[in-house]
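Late entry, written up from scratch paper. The run itself happened at the end of the previous shift, but nothing got recorded in the book at the time, so transcribing now.
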Amino acid sequence: MSDSIVHVDLGERAYDIVIGGGALADIGSRCAELFGSGKRILMVSDANVAEYYVSGTEALLIGAGFQVSVCVLPAGESTKCVARLAEIWEEAVEARLDRKSFIVALGGGVIGDLAGFAAASFLRGIPFVQVPTSLLAMVDSAVGGKTGMNLPQGKNLVGAFHQPNLVLADLSVLATLPLREQHAGMAEVIKYGVIWDPEMFAFIESHVAEIQALDSEAMRYLVKRSCEIKADVVRQDEREGGLRAILNFGHTLGHAIENVCGYGEWLHGEAISIGMVYAAKVSEVVNGFSSAETDRLIALFKAFELPVSWKGLCWEDLYKAMTADKKAENALPKFVLAEEMGKVGLPLEVSVELLKRVYDDGA
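Output as recorded:
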């Protein structure tokens, strides 16, 4: 079956997301078409992904006439830090990259965010290609141009908007993804159903077994539809001045959980699933969101073995982390809240008393 293409329409920064089983096999020809052959490339990956895909991808790029250097970093959220960013910069200098060179980010969200930020900042900005190898990266972090890294005080506090020139989402690589990572990626897929597409939410409910088996047609639909939604949002609001903020549903508490518990203790999707349940419960109080819809959300998370409870987590620590979040204003956290399935509002402040009450009721 031919690849599916989702076009991200951003004028001179427009690019295609190529989705399909075996899409990675075309990386050499697609990059040659975009950039012309003979360019110097730095491919950035992590130790887990490198075991499966670095040597083959390097061979494809060399076969297309590129001069390839490789930087392999440790796997895990802790890699999104200043020291590893500096390592990529140093490798880029060693590889003698120039402004006609580009970076290939081969990995999950951590590698995509960090390598993308390196591309945004090296020589004041060079092109880069996203090759996401996790479900979460395919449907979320590889699309939209957000790049960055974490600080001890919070997630993604330093970064830049830097759109990729191409995204290659090869669905066949999901077969090598650990089951826990597959489930965590579904949290962001489910989010699109809550904020934008109730039919997609219902599709997931009725196709859990197929999705868990990585059925090719089900996965193609979910990745393509997720990318279509995000591309539409990004087209309307590239730099999160308004509409794009709805993509943060569940992320205010979710990012705080990642920060307080230590990056890597919870996978991003696991923390976000808890954050979405909490946001749904706050939505019930503030917006009259149906408790039955919250129950649907909880049931779907449980079907993918995702956590739904914040029991045992310290409210004071989480609230402090939320006030340092990049979405906060005047040290007050803001929440994206649901109005009905498929529709959410823009971020708003919610009284700390209400937030604490909902937190205590659900703990």
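The chain has a mean pLDDT of 95.
(Scratch paper discarded after transcription.)
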